[in-house]
Amino acid sequence: MKSDIEISRDTQLKPITQIAAQLGIPESEVMQYGPYKAKINLSQINETAVQKSNLILVTAISPTKAGVGKTVTSVSLSLGLNKIGKKSIVALREPSLGPVFGMKGGAAGGGYAQVLPMEDINLHFTGDFHAITTANNTIAALLDNYQYNNINTDKALKQIVWKRVLDVNDRSLRYVNTGLGGRLNGLPQETGFDITPASEIMAILCLANGLEDLKARINQIVLGYKLDNTPFTVRDLGIADAIVILLKDAIMPNLVQTTENTAAIIHGGPFANIAHGCNSVLATKMALSLSDYVVTEAGFGSDLGAEKFLDIKCRMAGLQPKATVLVVTTQALKNHANLTDDEAKKPNLEVLKQGLPNLERHIENLQSFGQSIIVSLNKFYFDVEEEITFLKQWCHEKNTTFAINDAFVNGGEGASDLARAVVEVIEKNPSKSIQYQYELTDTVTEKLRKVATQIYRAKDIELSNKAKTALTKIEKNNWGHLPICIAKTQYSFTDNPKISGAPSGHTITIEDLIINAGAGFIVAVAGDIMRMPGLPKVPAAYGMTINDGVIEGLS
């Protein structure tokens, strides 16, 4: 079979204006970025249509190093829905350059279930990440300038908490000293960098409901604390308009196409292990306005992305998925029974059975939210009929719909059965109103404990001294009503990435609590999760080449 990039190049793309016309978007509302990419004006969002359309969430079991193919499934399902005669758009996140050049690779799908142009999407795309990085760091520069010019006055800040960001995996930037070299070079301080997908600006862009809401949220960002310990915000600095100017184009969702020339909207890219893991509210609403079935994904396993999608994004935006697709692979199930990747590709029904508790845990968790579930097997070349038949029967005994997705090899036709299964669930047994895991009136500790015990099956939570100090500040400033966003390893229900399967009875240690008042949630850092990832021993960048403008090794 051809590589992803070969399939991408062999696909005859349609002009993006033609894709927009298929959706009924006037050419005047399309801002082109070359022939195959465009931004769509926010005027195309129709709130009445949003409520009438069908939103489908794609999530997964706990991922392994090999991945489970969640983005492939999201693209596949939209292809399959269009193949069976439904009008569907897939709405995805934008890839981050950190993983692209690091270990995970891009996020444009794979095989014959891709969003295109793949190289552009995985690289600089329409510049949204650069705009977010610039906006974040412009705030940092203006904040440092404010402190520099007010250091010996009563306007000086007692503490600065705003960090810079960069869309690169770079562990050396986690902790840095700035302002060195004498007074003319600024004021010395200890600070650090997060990766751009962890920026509060990214979260704000993805949760904002328009330009005015974007400005209001940016004004609420907490940058530090004054001498009297009250918060110092962007509003106090007086620069919200300047930051919105930097984001005025980035806030518009991006339109591209799939390998079968159907529409895809890609916008925003917060990670789910260190942020809230969902594409923008505006992109989701845009897709819902323009089609009857919208497929969207939430990052990593359902304990991370789906929990945050439902407890944060849907709660804030008033969205309600009609069905949830839970992606699984036979290899991942065997990984959760502690087989290595190579061994997990070999037939072994008994070991596969040992990995089923992880799948069962995710089913139970999604059902606790009121979701109607379709388990989708992302089929690989090494899958055998015995294991597929067993998995199908197991799901049947759990009263859970099961479908095979073979779109990686066969495109939309290979996802037609999955599409029919999803439509049937939506028509006969759609998801109930979301049953949130906690109430906003719960205390921060109660929210953390409910997610930890109900979703992670932990015995309890434990707050570090640093987290306790942060909690006191949160309560003092009346931020306790906000939802929580737990930054945790994606590989385990615990805060230890080495513990796979479906563990229970453990303790989740909360190392820190970070207020994102503009985004409207509290980030709880669990275990030793890093908001600036590092590179692996052999980064993907080593395998990339470019000859006569042709890129190889990008995946």
Briefly summarize what is shown.
With 555 residues, this protein is α/β, with parallel strands linked by helices. 38% of the residues lie in helices and 20% in strands.
Structure description:
The protein has 555 residues and is an alpha/beta fold. It has 3 domains: 4-126 and 250-428, Rossmann fold (3-Layer(aba) Sandwich), CATH 3.40.50.300; 131-246, Domain 2, N(10)-formyltetrahydrofolate synthetase (2-Layer Sandwich); 444-526, Formyltetrahydrofolate synthetase, domain 3. It is built from 21 helices and 25 strands. The strands form 6 sheets. Strands 1, 2, 3, 4, 5, 6, 14, 15, 16, 17, 18 and 19 form a 12-stranded mixed β-sheet that branches. A hairpin with a 4-residue loop joins β12 and β13 (231-233). The longest helix has 23 residues, at 128-150.
Structural features:
3 domains, Formyltetrahydrofolate synthetase, domain 3, 25 strands, globular, four-stranded mixed sheet, Domain 2, N(10)-formyltetrahydrofolate synthetase, Rossmann fold, alpha/beta, 555 residues, twelve-stranded mixed sheet, single chain
| Total count of domains | 3
Q: What is the CATH superfamily of the largest domain? A: P-loop containing nucleotide triphosphate hydrolases
Percent range for β-strand residues:
15-25%
Assembly level: single chain
Overall pLDDT, averaged? 96
CATH architecture of the largest domain: 3-Layer(aba) Sandwich
Helical fraction equals 25-40%
| CATH topology assignment of the largest domain | Rossmann fold
User: Cα-atom Rg, whole angstroms?
Assistant: 23 Å
CATH classification class of the largest domain: Alpha Beta
- Give a quick account of the main beta sheet: strands, pairing sense, barrel closure: 12 strands, mixed
End-to-end C-alpha gap: 15 Å
Structural class designation: alpha/beta
How many individual β-strands? 25
- Count the helices. How many? 21
Low-confidence stretches: none
Described by the principal axes of the CA atoms, the overall outline is globular
